[in-house]
Amino acid sequence: MRALGYERTGAAGEVLVQQDIDRPEIGPRDLLVAVKGISVNPVDVKLRANRDPQGFGTLGFDAAGVVVQAGAEVTGYRTGDEVFYAGDVTRAGSNAEFQAVDERIVGRKPASMDFTEAAGMPLTTITAWEMLFDSFRLTEGDGTGQSLLVIGGAGGVGSILIQLAKRLTGLTVIATASRPETQDWVRKMGADHVIDHRQDLVAQMRDLNIAPQYVASLTGTEQHWPAIIELIAPRGHVALIDDPASLNILPAKPKALSVSWEFMFARPMFGADMLAQRDLLNRLSAMLDAGDLQSTVTRRADSLTLQTLAAAHELQESGRVIGKQVLPGLSA
Predict the structure, then answer these.
(1) What one-character DSSP code corresponds to residue 88?
(2) How far apart are CA 89 and CA 47, in angstroms?
(3) DSSP code of 268?
(4) CA 241 to CA 34: how far, in whole Å?
(5) Backbone torsions φ then ψ of 115, nearest 5 degrees
(6) pLDDT at 328
(7) Confidence of residue 303 (pLDDT cuts 50, 70, 90)
(8) DSSP state of 219
């Protein structure tokens, strides 16, 4: 089968290659999926730039497609089912004609979306959902009278996090965005207030007279850390997804803050409560079909080639992606 990947770290235009590789073998709980839609996420560019694949590495951690084979112990799906998922960072990715994926982290594709658009939703939604309900330990309907600051609100995770917080909790949502187009976007996603992360965050939050109980730091955590400590409410909770080179959490002690990382691959990596991701993806699918959530896709390519994939990686690295960018799969 055809696959797009890399054999050495480096710039996308220099290291991405196409190879013919064997169709993956599936385990007893696996599905073999013909991949018909993919998206590009920060994890794709981080791995391509920094992790030696020790041979040929297939990237891609969002996909939508059709089940062509089910393992002997699979109970939730059968051949012909249309599915979507975010995959497992320890296994071969979705930039291939076929992918093997554990059924416990797979949801049913929204009927209202084509495969390409559907592929833009799983990874970011799982991340946002787990941040709200696992990291912050909220339950649906919680948060009335409290607030959430989303730093980096116009990206893929921020775009769906704002929607989930507004739809499923009572939180007031403040999102950061620095350009007119990104500020318009986060308002469209449902943010109650918008501030500029290139300006003084503490002063802007004081102008709003809000000390948030929750901060979702989606980008630039190391840069914004002193401001986060100053503006957050005592006994607040900071959750982050990026990779600061260093982070001194001692300043969080006087306010008795909680600090946690969200990493949606933790469940499949360690086999921990994996069915939770199937459940939330099926919930996401139903909410999208009902119109309760809107797509975060803003950019889609007409085909998946080395050139279009490299362009998507380069745009992702630029830090100027609004929402999500998607491409057809190699089996489309």
Answers:
(1) -
(2) 10
(3) H
(4) 30
(5) -60, -40
(6) 98
(7) very high
(8) S
Residue whose structure tokens are 């594709």: 109
Which residue type occupies 171? L
Q: CATH classification of 2-121+274-328 is 3.20.20.70, yes or no?
A: no
DSSP assignment of 132-150, as one string?
Answer: IIIIS---TT--TT-EEEE
- Between CA 65 and CA 87 the distance in angstroms is 12
- For the chain, the residue count is 332
Coil/strand/helix, residue 279: helix
Q: Residue holding tokens 């330990």? A: 137
Going by C-alpha positions, the residue among 151, 115, 304, 131 that lies closest to residue 228 is 151
Percent residues over pLDDT 90 in the chain? 100
Fold agreement between 2-121+274-328 and 124-261: no
Homologous superfamily of domain range 124-261: NAD(P)-binding Rossmann-like Domain (3.40.50.720)
Q: Is the dihedral of CA 286, 287, 290, 295 positive or negative?
A: negative
pLDDT grade for 297, boundaries at 50, 70 and 90: very high
Residue 25 is classified by DSSP as: P
Q: What angle do CA 169, 170, 176 make, to 5 degrees?
A: 85
Between CA 259 and CA 265 the distance in angstroms is: 19
